[in-house]
Amino acid sequence: AFEPRVFSGVQPTGNLHLGNYLGAVSRWVPLQDEMPSIFCVVDLHAITAGFPDPKELSAATREVTAAYIASGIDPAKSIIFNQSQVKEHAELAWIFNCVARMGWLNRMTQFKDKAGKNRENASVGLFAYPNLMAADILAYRATHVPVGDDQKQHLELTRDIAQKFNNDFAERIRELGIGVPNPTPSPELPDELYLPLTEPVIAGPATRVMSLRDGTKKMSKSDPSDLSRINLTDDADAISKKVKKAKTDPEPLPGEMDGLKDRPEADNLVGIYAALAGMAKEAVLAEYGGQPFSVFKPALAEIAVMRLAPIAGEMRRLMADPAEIDRVLKDGAERASAIAQPVLRDMRRIVGF
Ligand code: ADP
Ligand code: NA
Questions:
Q1: Can the keyword Repressor be found in this entry's annotation (predicted)?
Q2: Range 322-331, long-range pairs (CB < 8 A, 24+ positions)
Q3: Does residue 218 carry a catalytic annotation?
Q4: Beta carbon of 270 within 6 Å of any ligand 1 atom
Q5: Domain 236-318 indexed as CATH 1.10.3470.10
Q6: Quick check: helix, strand or coil at residue 200?
Q7: Pair 39, 68: CB distance under 8 Å
């Protein structure tokens, strides 16, 4: 069987925010005790929507690294590195550019959102981004990918790529004797696979954190005008102010989940509270049902400060020593390469290079 392995990443494009933390990074921490884990700062992805200032890009890479460590990722146990330092990502992405079909990528909603009306002017990299993401995961033959809800479609594409590659090269994989028995036999797949069909790990009460000023928009790094966004670098005062200013409706909180329907702002704040407190949303409603936001918001602010302010403090401490962060990234890149290189050697043999 495929060895269980976790892979995930965040782009170094500006500040990490509460959505990245609750939807992704905080959920990685317990996983690193369950299976070998690789956490990447995906800087090759950070140039797809336009090249950032080169100095800002390397500073953002260090900041995301600091956020991982401050959130509880242990660099002695898990691998932390940046994507551009392991060449196998780009090499495998090229192979996958020739596996994925134009029609598959044309269906990606994130490209449509990010490219907007002016598709002709989007970079080819932005269009092909999901192939690079598939390469990030499959260069390690990772089996589990913990991400937010917005990445679901890209992970389905990763599985489609793995499935097509396994099928197209089934005979070759058998001939070379490097296949793994298919753990879930099905008529769509050969008996032996080289690439695993990766499982998305999208779970918990905050897989899609919405903006605090508009409950219908995702909290996102890419909207610089959204000052309501809670950043991982915010201090206690800033966190507290942003929670208290969050848009809400005038009704008290409902006692049951049904009562959150058509109340996106209330639903979002309850989900955030639940994730920060390690509770289910039902339990939050059992506690706060019938209470007005004037009671719930201070409680939410308190737990947000309690969970997030220490991370900001630890990030500041880590960022004061950039040489140490660079050392973590270098060590991580060596350990990542040691896994990806033999996979690429096999992939090259399969293809015939
Ligand atoms: P962003 O979408 O903020 O630019 P990335 O694309 O680098 O950030 O995403 C990094 C991780 O954070 C991914 O796993 C993504 O699914 C998750 N994520 C991003 N925004 C949110 C959100 N608002 N709620 C939950 N998870 C999110
Ligand atoms: Na995203």
A1: no
A2: 322/62, 325/62, 325/65, 325/66, 326/62, 328/65, 328/69, 328/75, 328/80, 329/41, 329/61, 329/62, 329/65, 329/80, 329/81, 329/82, 329/85, 330/85, 331/75
A3: yes
A4: no
A5: no
A6: strand
A7: yes
Mean pLDDT, residues 268-288 taken together: 98
Q: Give nearest CA residue, ligand 1 atom 18.
A: 20
Ligand 1 centroid, distance to 254 Cα (angstroms): 28
Check 55, 112, 117, 218 and give the catalytic one: 218
Can you name the residues that pair with 201 across neighbouring β-strands? 146
Distance 222 CA to ligand 2 centre (A): 9
| Residue 108 identity | M
Ligand 1 near 11 CB (within 6 A): yes
Interval 52-68: pLDDT, tens:
999 999 999 999 999 99
Among 155, 42, 153, smallest CA distance to 90 is for 42
Average pLDDT over residues 75-81: 98
Whose atoms come closest to the Cα of 221: which ligand?
1
- What proportion of the chain, given as a percentage, has pLDDT over 90? 96
For the Cβ of 209 lying below 6 angstroms from any atom of ligand 1, the answer is yes
Residue ranges, comma separated, of all CATH 3.40.50.620 domains in the chain are 6-201+322-351
Question: Is any atom of ligand 1 closer than 6 Å to the C-beta of 82?
Answer: no
Sequence-ordered list of residues with C-beta below 8 angstroms from that of 154, at least 6 positions apart, any chain: 108, 110, 130, 133, 134
112 tagged catalytic: no
ipTM of the complex: 0.96
Quick one: tokens of 10? 């965040």
Q: Which CATH architecture has domain 6-201+322-351?
A: 3-Layer(aba) Sandwich (3.40)
Give binding residues for L-tryptophan as ranges.
136
- Ligand (nearest to CA of 224): 1
Cross-strand pairs, 192: 181
Any catalytic annotation for residue 164?
A: no
| pLDDT for the residue 84 | 98
For the question of whether the overall pTM of this predicted structure is more than 0.90, the answer is: yes
Name the segment(s) of the chain with CATH classification 1.10.240.10: 236-318
Q: Which ligand is nearest to the CA of 13?
A: 1
Band of the pLDDT at 229, cuts 50, 70, 90?
very high
